[in-house]
Amino acid sequence: MVTLYKPKQKSQHLGQQVKLQVESTDYEVNGIGRWQQKIAFVSGALAGEQVLAKVTEDKTHFIKARVERVLKASPLRVTPFCPHYQLCGGCQLQHVASAEQAQLKQQGVDELIRHQTGLGELPWQPLLTGPDQGYRRKARIGVWFDRKRKQLTVGFRESASKTLTPINTCAVLQPQLQPIFAVLQQVVPQLSEPSAITHVEVIAAEQQVFLIVRHTKQLTTAEQQLFVTAWPEAVWLGEAEAGQLTNWQPNAPSPRYRLSEQGLELAFAATDFIQVNPQLNQQMVSLALQWLQPHAEDNILDLYAGMGNFSLALAQRAKLVHGVEGLATMVQQATANAQLNGITNAQFWQADLHLAWGKTDWNNPIYQKIVLDPARAGAEGAMPQLVKLKPAQILYISCNAATFARDAKVLLQSGYQLQKIAGIDMFPHTSHLELMALFSR
Q1: Confidence at residue 2, expressed as pLDDT on a 0 to 100 scale
Q2: pLDDT digits (tens, 9 = 90+) for 217-245
Q3: Which residues of the chain have pLDDT under 50?
Q4: H/E element holding 229?
Q5: What is the pLDDT of residue 4?
Q6: What angle do CA 376, 382, 384 make, to 5 degrees?
Q7: Largest Cα–Cα distance in the chain?
Q8: Which uninterrupted H or E stretch holds 321?
Q9: Contact 94, 80 (CB under 8 A)
Q10: Catalytically annotated residues
Q11: Residue 335 and residue 344: Cα distance in Å, rounded?
């Protein structure tokens, strides 16, 4: 018997414009309606609205669509302040006022967590919020030079696309980063091969701007100097290969940021992960201290510790802090930051927390409190091992409500109770809401 391969047929509905009545929104503030017995998730739509939307994905039980025209608007809808909003994929919620955005996100997250965990009511604390413009201290600027048309585009990717939309200014970037768009427009066309530049990462480290130029071919010293001359106050770094930086200026400083409420200064490499919203990062660290109330007899374990963003603040009050991080370079940076701040009771180790922990100096049931701040994938592999340590309190910081709900269920089934939870509006005008939750035995 011969089985013939039949290619999967492309959905006839992709690209089709459909009329939808939006009934509610999900945890990312996408509209939810129904179309031909399927659930419809509609980006850019609000509850109570009637819209014309373009189908972008068609599955067996649901479709995804994007609003093309609003036929009946919600009272919550406002005019976006950015002229690039309809094309740029950076922001998803400028059609809603900032205060309402955060509330809608929290409502959606509340429903998701309760549905996944079976909890009746969540002990929500006040939302952490900050400025809704000029807040972002780090971003990646796309660069594309069309060789045939000799045309340069500098900007951000469009939503669900690799296409760049040209940007001259970005309202959510910190003001000191705004010159980057004009500088790239000025310098890149002067290069012998403008297409060698693929993107530039901008970082505001306190008052100093750092710029990482990603280039696929080596630039001459003269070409590097074109960038430096165009913006001499900034620190320019080249990145011909991922993670390998070349400083284009002699004696340039290293990036640092401060946690002023704790009197801490943290150094980092320009390629390291840092929270992009400094105001909310400070609030988040201070709230962690407020909830955990670390004292001189506490042994604390900080998982996914990074460069010590939480570890060092905790160590100022605790007996000892052990930090564990997956990247060896970040472990080295955290150790250096402890020395920089004169902290002697914090130690750091490298380990893949999603694998079996085994017998280590830090994997011991000596901790009264554990902090974890995983990436978007959450801490699924770490949860069963974490609960074996039986700490009295666990503080979970999450950037993904879905994986948080999954991991929280493990804690609840292991005898922990959810004491407090707070939304952290780290990225105003986007669909993301970060969370901080305190679990106690």
Answers
A1: 45
A2: 999 999 999 999 999 999 999 998 887 89
A3: 1-6
A4: helix 221-230
A5: 45
A6: 130
A7: 75
A8: strand 320-325
A9: yes
A10: 399
A11: 10
- Under a CB-based contact definition with an 8 Å cutoff, are residues 212 and 271 in contact? yes
Who's near 35: CB < 8 A, 6+ residues apart?
18, 20, 63
DSSP string for 360-387: -SS-STT-SEEEE---TT-STTTHHHHH
Compute and round to an integer the Cα radius of gyration of the chain. 24
Full-prediction pTM beyond 0.85? yes
3-state secondary structure of 397: strand
Residue among 291, 315, 290 nearest 302 (CA): 315
* Residue 8 confidence (pLDDT): 53
Residue written as token pair 């979970």: 396
Q: Please give the pLDDT value at position 242.
A: 82
The answer to whether residues 327 and 308 touch, using CB atoms and an 8 Å cutoff, is no
Provide DSSP, 120-140: S---B-PPB---SSS-B-EEE
27 near 430, Cβ under 8 Å? no
Q: Are strands 138-146 and 151-157 parallel, antiparallel or unpaired?
A: antiparallel
Q: What is the per-residue pLDDT for 124?
A: 98
Tokens of 50: 């009637």
pLDDT at 98: 86
